[in-house]
Design goal:
By secondary structure, the chain is an alpha/beta fold. The protein contains nine helices and eight strands. It is 48% helix and 16% strand. The chain has a five-stranded parallel β-sheet with strand order 2-6-1-7-8. A three-stranded antiparallel β-sheet has the order 3-4-5. The longest helix has 17 residues, at 170-186.
């Protein structure tokens, strides 16, 4: 593929964004950017430092000094905070809830947006989140919006949480996801929306391979009219 553009994947929690974005990036030889990990990192570090995110002055000072080492490749998005590589720590349920609250704050969203744009300045990235195609990269060459029904998304989230201990009941996870959907869709700052021109894919009844294949077909059509390239696991 000759042209290396920016590909965005947006959608609600549990729609399959992270898995699809990683596989798509790996297939294309692109960098994978995970905006959610940056929000989680802010929430995680603020908690450990005792920073009150509702205190605007404290928040600005914290973000100014918060410079985690960030690297990205086709296999993952990596963060190092205070010399410690963080990964699974950021996937704990309490971090998810704290990150959702942090994402409501304009200062945090600006901080995340600037770091994503720095990483994507040379193109050749697949970036996923909730405002990638609407706010962070509105001029992206190829945009996707993944969705799925609530029960399916909750079951997927439960599978992820089982890696970190005993998960809550399915009904509780569904309620939490529904609450987060409302927060994301109604917040004043960068609400969750289908980006203009995005391809919408309902992943409820699709396998990961089927979703990635559909995305690749669109990418090749948009960035490589000759149709070169194929999906390789």
């Amino acid at each position: 593929m000759e042209k290396r553009g920016v590909i965005t994947i947006d959608g609600p929690a549990g729609a399959g964004k992270s898995t699809v974005a990683r596989l798509l990036a790996r297939s294309l030889g692109y960098l994978y950017l995970d905006s959610g990990s940056l929000y989680r990192a802010v929430a995680w570090q603020a908690h450990h430092l005792g920073v009150d995110l509702e205190d605007s002055q404290a928040l600005v000072a914290f973000l100014h000094g918060f410079q985690p080492a960030v690297s990205a490749d086709g296999d993952g998005f990596h963060l190092v905070i205070d010399g410690h590589k963080v990964g699974e720590e950021l996937r704990q349920p309490w971090v998810s809830r704290a990150a959702s609250s942090a994402a409501q704050l304009p200062e945090v969203r600006h901080w995340v947006k600037e770091r994503l744009r720095q990483l994507a300045q040379n193109g050749g990235v697949v970036t996923e989140g909730r405002d990638q195609g609407t706010v962070v990269f509105p001029e992206a060459q190829c945009k996707f919006y993944l969705t799925a029904d609530l029960a399916t998304r909750a079951r997927r989230r439960l599978r992820d949480w089982r890696k970190n201990g005993d998960p809550p009941p399915l009904e509780e996870v569904m309620q939490e996801l529904a609450t987060r959907d409302r927060q994301d869709e109604t917040r004043t700052e960068a609400p969750l929306r289908v980006p203009p021109g995005a391809v919408v894919i309902d992943t409820t009844s699709l396998s990961i391979d089927e979703v990635v294949t559909a995305c690749l077909a669109r990418v090749h059509e948009s960035l490589d009219p000759a149709g070169r390239g194929k999906y390789t696991k």
